[in-house]
Amino acid sequence: LGEISNNLDIYKEKHLKGHADKLATYRLATDVVVEILGDFDQVRTSGHLPTDVATRWDRFNRNRMKVYGYLAMLAPQSVMDAYDALMDHILDVASNQRNYVWSEVRNLAINMLNEIRKDIGIDPAPIEYRGRR
Q: Which of 106, 113, 120 is nearest to 40 (CA)?
């Protein structure tokens, strides 16, 4: 009985640690997306690039690759696919292969968040944007 209890405690601790690692990784992924989209919005509203655009881009690029590695260790393929779709879109916008359209980016971001929500067990029902913009 003691060995079973000990094994159960080890399993529970591993599960909780894995869940905490996922939450931290998903928060980092969200932070990386928010930062670059904030930069895109700044350009859209002001009409000019920030003076430190190279530094900002370098930081984004390094962080997106870091997040990819973390996701690859913890996330299911559905989250990876949603992250890839969003990053591909962002990279296309940054390289002028696609126009920045907020509603398109928002939909890709919401899709990623919905896949994350399913994975961490918050709610399998998808969230949706119901605002006016």
A: 106
Amino acid at 92: D
- Note whether 80 and 72 are within 8 A (CB): yes
Measure the CA dihedral 83/89/95/101, to 10°: -140
CA 59 to chain centre: 15
CA distances from 84 to 60, 78, 80, 92, 104 (A): 15, 10, 6, 12, 14
Per-residue DSSP letters for 61-112? HHHHHHHHHHHHHH--HHHHHHHHHHHHHHHHHHTTSS---HHHHHHHHHHH
Q: If you compute the radius of gyration of the chain from its CA atoms, what whole number of angstroms results?
A: 18
> Is 114 within 8 Å of 81 (Cβ atoms)?
no
User: pLDDT by residue for the chain (133 residues), tens digit each?
Assistant: 777 777 776 767 777 788 899 999 999 999 999 999 988 888 888 877 777 888 889 999 999 999 999 999 999 999 999 999 999 999 999 999 999 999 999 999 999 999 999 999 988 899 999 998 7
